[in-house]
Amino acid sequence: MNICILSELFYPYVLGGAERRYMEIAKRLSKKHEITVYSLRLHGFPKTEIWENITIKRVGMEHPLNKRFLPALATYASPLLRCMKSEYDVIDMNQGIAMYASIFSPATHRPMIATFHDIYADAWKKYYPGFYSFVGKVMEYGWSMLAFDSVIANSFQTKEKLEQLGIKNATVINSGIDLKFINSIRSKKTNSIVYVGRLVDYKHVDELIIAFKGIEKQYPNTTLKIIGSGYDEQRLKNIAANDKRIKFFGYVSEKDKIRHIKSASLLVNPSEVEGLGLILLEAMACRTPVMAKALSCYKDFAIAGKNAFITNKITAKSILKILDNKKLQNNLSAEGHATAKNFTWDKTAERVERIYQNRSFNTV
């Protein structure tokens, strides 16, 4: 098949779960199919590049590698017309501006696949300032008015939200992890707790910092590693108040990320918004116990008290429940690892490929 992927951001931008998902799927499918990805231009990278047998065509305004930049995202328009080229057998549109390519479906005569990662609906105002909230709600309303040949949701939670938006019959295909890569990384255990993710207010990293400060008496030699970047970083550093036990690492490589997770006693994700929660799966694969807020998306792979410690709020007391209980740590580690093995990028790519083949005019 000749597959076209429309994604505003793509390799080497991998800060988000959606970008990581498309990268991993494209790498695997490119071994058997022709893959062309249209993404925004990225600083220091050519407009056209062949990477992992994938043709990447970068357009529009240059986008930074370390954050999301709305003005650049708004320039992602020309691919919506370029996808009309007849050589493509199927077009996969990543959630965002790319989905408006389906407007041209009658002209392309090509199957249009929409992939969704999360829907905010009435929660936009809660997590984003006025203008961004307005833009987000308008876009979601626009998607509800579009026609797609197939819809993919990354979790059952996302599927339920799509149904509320009026988009029916989505196929749930969970994201995965790279077990071979994770198993190849070596790291010694340390007395540390780790957070990995964007530093934005709805991730509630401040809640974790405050909870961590509350365990100093019991665990004075334990450190908190905060990995990631975002607009909330300076505020979080102010809350940390130069506590030498709290270390900010910013953006790190995938290898270093896994090394930090493997060395930790516990990974905590205090976010109240997740499409799937891929970082929990990666930690489970590392045999690191995980703690997270009670979000419905985790039902795809986590059972409270078994694969993950699920709580309503991250507090010093909830952290101590794990650190003080070696048996619980071992159970979370063992059960989490057993679960994580069922979620691989190979399986994700195979299921997405079947969607493409069922819709393609020129199946293989």
Keywords for this entry:
single chain; 364 residues; alpha/beta; Rossmann fold; eight-stranded mixed β-sheet; 15 helices; 14 strands; 37% helix
CATH superfamily of the largest domain: Glycogen Phosphorylase B
- The overall average pLDDT, rounded, is 91
Largest sheet: 8 strands, mixed
CATH class of the largest domain: Alpha Beta
Share in β-strands? 15-25%
Question: What does the radius of gyration come to?
Answer: 21 Å
List the helices and strands and how they pair.
Blueprint: E1 2-6, H1 17-29, E2 34-42, E3 48-51, E4 54-63, H2 70-73, H3 78-82, E5 90-94, H4 105-108, E6 112-116, H5 124-127, H6 130-144, E7 150-153, H7 156-165, E8 171-172, H8 179-184, E9 192-196, H9 205-213, E10 223-227, H10 233-240, E11 246-250, H11 254-263, E12 266-269, H12 278-285, E13 290-293, E14 309-311, H13 316-323, H14 326-340, H15 345-359
Parallel strand pairs: 1-2, 1-5, 2-4, 5-6, 6-7, 7-8, 9-10, 9-12, 10-11, 12-13, 13-14
Antiparallel strand pairs: 3-4
